Amino acid sequence: MQKIYNRIIQISGNVVTVEAKDIGYRDLAEISSKKGKSLAQVIRIDGEHIYLQVFAGSQGVSTGDKVRFLGHAMRVSFSENLLGRIFNGAGLPRDNGPRLEENMIEIGGPPVNPAKRIIPDKMVRTGIPMIDVFNSLVESQKLPIFSVPGEPYNEVLARIAMQAEVDLIILGGMGLKYDDYLFFRDTLDKHGSLSRSIFFVHTASDPTVECLLVPDISLAVAEEFALKGKRVLVLLTDMTNFCDALKEISITMEQIPSNRGYPGDLYSQLAARYEKAVDFDTAGSITTLAVTTMPGDDVTHPVPDNTGYITEGQFYLRNKSIEPFGSLSRLKQQVNGKTRKDHRTIMDRMIQLFADYRSTLEKQAMGFHMSEWDKKLLQYGKMFEEKMMNLSMNIPLEKALDLGWQIMADNFEPVETGIKTDLIKEFWPKK
């Protein structure tokens, strides 16, 4: 039963306060004003005071307007017709296509019961050596990409969307510049990946509340597809914009701020979204990669700091490449022992040699004498950066492993690598 009220007692920014009874948290409401009808969502309940965030802003809304509660939370249509489509944060078409209204599902539900989950054991191949070889992405994993503004994190997400061996890509954009939105759309369309993708895009000029809806709407659709047996990869950018939207609304609500003005439930808000990653016992899976920009490259900032406690590792994007040190996939051991028997050896030994290369760079900068071994390390490190850390690479895991052997063979003698003799005999490139 829909309830209609006209007792708007306060308008503060884009938040409208109404006196009403028996209203549910996150329920939708429709405000009828002179400028037309506006959609709003319940963001706080204090007794009979109901606080509504107006999607399109409160300009034109007056205290005498009528508020009609719809009796349900935000919903989105679910069907195969979503594939290849682009929507805004409220689930309305951005691509001039038809509005979808069949099979509506509610967003923002609880995470999956752990009893219905299985231990992650399947690799998501991306074609990027720095991920596949050194920090393998695993189905149902939740990983952030820590970066700073100016780094090509959206280009990395687009490349993963094109190359990842999954059934379906869902892109959730929050606070995107319009150019970034067009970049995602045009890049995936050009490479034939748009047909297996669904976009939910909030741009910087859209209402703040829509930014908060993007992760929930993306993950709700992902869950429905996963229950039908699909391997779904959810790409979210940028979760710092999502947290800033939470901060903006909490300030409007005059809530007591926590660290740097963010709401005290920031951890819970992030966990509610990240914990949606799941590998179902008898169905598909949801894997989540989410960009988190760090203001001032500060990993102790509340957003990356809280994120690190929830997720299963992180990728650091620095200097237009995935940094070998600091980047970590805590689930990689679940899969890289099942790929090729030299995978772990290549992963470990190449990173050890690259660490020696970084130390040699410091010695060189301080004017120390370079030994023959140092010269080999310098040459090895440059080849590693050019061929392994290059994010434009798109090669299968097996070819990436072969490339790793070739790079070591071009710079070292077999005995200098410290690799077991049986692996040297089987995989060392023949001259």
Describe the structure.
- The chain has twelve helices and 21 strands.
- It is an alpha/beta fold.
- It has three domains: 71 residues, Thrombin, subunit H, CATH 2.40.10.170; 258 residues, Rossmann fold, CATH 3.40.50.12240; 85 residues, no CATH class.
- The strands form four sheets. Strands 9, 13, 14, 15, 16, 17, 18, 19, 20 and 21 form a ten-stranded mixed sheet that branches. The protein has a seven-stranded antiparallel sheet with strand order 1-7-4-5-6-3-2, with no helix packed on it. It has a two-stranded antiparallel sheet with strand order 8-10.
- A hairpin with a 2-residue loop joins β4 and β5.
- It is elongated.
- It starts with a strand and ends with a helix.
- The model has no long low-confidence stretch (mean pLDDT 92).
| Number of E-state strands | 21
CATH architecture of the largest domain: 3-Layer(aba) Sandwich
Regarding CATH, which class of the largest domain?
A: Alpha Beta
Helix content: 25-40%
* CATH fold annotation of the largest domain: Rossmann fold
Radius of gyration: 25 Å
Largest sheet: 10 strands, mixed
What's the domain count? Answer: 3
Give the DSSP E fraction (strand runs of 2 or more residues).
Answer: 25-35%
Unreliable stretches, pLDDT < 50, 5 or more residues? none
Shape: elongated
